[in-house]
Amino acid sequence: MTTAKKLLFAIPLILQVILFIAFESLLIPLMENSRNIERLMRGQLPRGDAQLLVIIFGMLVALDIITRVFYIIFAMRTKELHEGKRMTWILVLALLGVIAQLFFYFKVIRKAGAAEKATVQQQKATDFWNS
After folding, report:
1. Are 78 and 108 in contact (CB under 8 A)?
2. CA nearest to 16, candidates 75, 91, 108, 99
3. Phi, psi of 33 (to 5 degrees)
4. In degrees rounded to 5, what are phi and psi of residue 97?
5. Distance of CA 63 to CAs 5, 12, 13, 43, Å?
6. Res 43: pLDDT
């Protein structure tokens, strides 16, 4: 797997983390006051704050669904995982979301090209000595 493809898997994951931090940084100050909590439950937040929270939350959910689907498709198609691990990763990715995606990225995607590179290098060395 090329570096560009690995980066393609990393960018949405990083965006999810950034959006989650932005969402929490807007929500936590609103929760410091008990009146704000009551207003939030009744849907009476100031217009700007409420709209911004809804927009960020919507982007976060949409990005989560998209990346979850891409990671599951990658887990189904990759040759680095044997059948038992493949099904385990698919279930974990489907149920745990971003946390599982982080682990999957570092345990599977970043190592995805290592076996191919080793095989190519070994083949080149064999070809050199055989010619």
Report:
1. yes
2. 99
3. -110, 135
4. 70, -130
5. 18, 7, 9, 25
6. 72
Per-residue pLDDT at 114: 67
pLDDT at residue number 104? 93
Q: Quickly list DSSP for 89-121.
A: HHHHHHHHTHHHHHHHIIIIITTTTHHHHHHHH
Q: What is the mean pLDDT of each run of 10 residues along the chain (131 residues)?
A: 83 91 84 74 71 86 93 89 90 92 90 68 68 61
| Cβ-based neighbours of 92, under 8 Å, separated by 6 or more | 100, 103, 104
Q: Which of 126, 109, 120 is nearest to 3 (CA)?
A: 109
**25 Cβ partners below 8 Å, 6+ apart?**
none
Query: What is the C-alpha radius of gyration for the chain, rounded to an integer number of angstroms?
Result: 21
By three-state DSSP, how is residue 124 classified?
Answer: helix
For the record, the structure tokens of 42 come out as 């009744």
- Which token pair is 40? 């939030």
DSSP secondary structure code for residue 2 in this structure: -
Residue 73, pLDDT score: 93
